[in-house]
Amino acid sequence: MDTLQHILVYITLAISVGYIVNKFLLPKSLWSTKKSDSKACGQNDCGCH
Fold first, then answer.
1. Cβ–Cβ contacts within 10 Å for residue 43, how many?
2. Could you tell me the CA-to-CA distances from 27 to 19, 23, 24 in Å, in that order?
3. Which of 29, 33, 7 is nearest to 15 (CA)?
4. Counting Cβ atoms within 10 Å, is residue 49 exposed (0-12), middle (13-18) or buried (19+)?
5. CB–CB of 25/18 below 8 Å?
6. pLDDT at residue 38 tops 60
7. How confident is the model at residue 25 (pLDDT cuts 50, 70, 90)?
């Protein structure tokens, strides 16, 4: 039973460290998709309000 708990703790730790690295350390340009036809609500009236 101790072995299962250790495995679950290490999995949880790996997921949390991965999230922190992805959220704060990796550049956003690595995951962004380039959409040239997307509209921002501030420039045109897109009807989102």
1. 7
2. 13, 9, 8
3. 7
4. exposed
5. no
6. no
7. confident
Q: Can you tell me which residue has the tokens 């009236």?
A: 45
What would the two tokens of residue 44 be?
A: 């045109």
- Structure-token match 């690595």, residue found: 30
Residue type for 47, please? G
Measured in whole angstroms, how far is the alpha carbon of residue 11 from the centre of its chain?
Answer: 18
φ, ψ of residue 36 to 5 degrees: the values are -85, -20
DSSP 14-39: HHHHHHHIIIIIS-GGGT----TT--
Q: Are 39 and 46 in contact (CB under 8 A)?
A: yes
